[in-house]
Amino acid sequence: MIWSYFIIFALVSVVLWATGAWAAWRNRRALAFATTGFGLAIFFAYILIMWITLERPPLRTMGETRLWYSFFLPLAGVIVYSRWQYKWILSFSTLLATVFVCVNLFKPEIHSKTLMPALQSPWFAPHVIVYMMAYALLGAAVVMSVYLLFFKKGNDTTKEMEITDNLTYVGLSFMTLGMLMGALWAKEAWGHYWSWDPKETWAAITWLSYLVYVHYRQYRSRDIRPALWVLIIAFCLLQMCWWGINYLPSAQGVSVHTYNLS
User: Is the Cβ–Cβ distance between 234 and 252 less than 8 Å?
Assistant: First the structure.
């Protein structure tokens, strides 16, 4: 089973990402980009091998979606680093990606080729992949908000808020695109675009919470602390939408998204 080789790919990737984080702190940008990029290539190669082996996109179980999240975190980190030269962002992305990798190592999922009819839609893979990218970008945004609230020294936060805003705007754009793809998928699979399924309800709540941040920043741009708390709350709601919903009684036997637990 290809899953038994995950530890090899994961270990090599994490070591390369950690090397990239170290290189960033040492101002060795070329090495930081090279090692982080190589680590991403190795990790993505495993995802592709798993895709070929399972004969389906590795996106059905929570463990499989964690693979994509582990991949997109360092990708988001290196994008932020290349644009704004924040050294610590690669360290954070490596640490968080390692946490998700370890969760998959200690709690392996059962991966089979079986794919229920609803998941055989061409919208399935892009919907989940786009959402995972959104989650990674919004994860980076909430880290920036925590940094500004509790660790930032000095009153000049212009650069940091620019980064936080851009991460949130792009992340929300990906989330919106993912929701639209999900609606098209739902129409094809179940005959309707939206049904206020528990998962869909929390997705709408999460989307609206980030929209609150966007509007607040437009009209109260100088008062940043409430906006940063909105980001933290929104990210907590995002976690409920992603995996917390699976443990709510209202979703058991009712939600069409409970296939994530299988």
Answer: no
